[in-house]
Amino acid sequence: MAARIPEAKALLIDLSAPFGWSGSPPFYSAFGRAITWLVQQNSPHTVLAGEDNEAFWGFEWVDDHLLIEVDMEDRLQLAEATLRHAMLAIHGPRAINEEKFSQWKTRLNALGLTWDTANRTVSMPVDTIAKALDRVRKLKQSKTVTKSDLLKISREFTPHL
Description:
InterPro entries: Hepadnavirus_pol/RT. There is one protein chain. Helix 1 runs antiparallel to helix 3 and helix 4 (126-141) packs antiparallel against helix 5 (147-157). This protein is an alpha+beta fold. It is elongated and about 65 Å long. The termini are close together. It has 2 domains: 27-104; 105-161, no CATH class. The protein contains 5 helices and 7 strands. The protein has helices at residues 28-40, 44-47, 75-91, 126-141, 147-157, and strands spanning 2-5, 10-13, 58-61, 64-67, 107-110, 113-116, 121-123.
């Protein structure tokens, strides 16, 4: 994430994700992308012979993987199995942490957002917006701003970091 504040002649660059803020190795994103690429090269047809050749869809953010799929036939189970196989292929036999896997849902909170596939919406929780606006108002009223203040507001807008 980056932001520019022309009036202050300032440029902000959030480097928390590339440098492993989440506790993951700093290079994990390259491996995470490889896992997603492997998942997206497959479909139920390539995993288990069948008619459905629509590729699986997912994305990653640092060390989190999300799959978004249509609930038809055994597509959800095959997508999850494909993700697990891709993780094993890239990271080896100790790659899978069962506690990090969640059940399929039509509504979930991920990356600081609320995803509702039934209603086809993605939204930011109201309390997150209120906190962020409050911090912005306070920053606008103050004559000086500390680096700590900027980091706090940055985290309000990017809670997934």
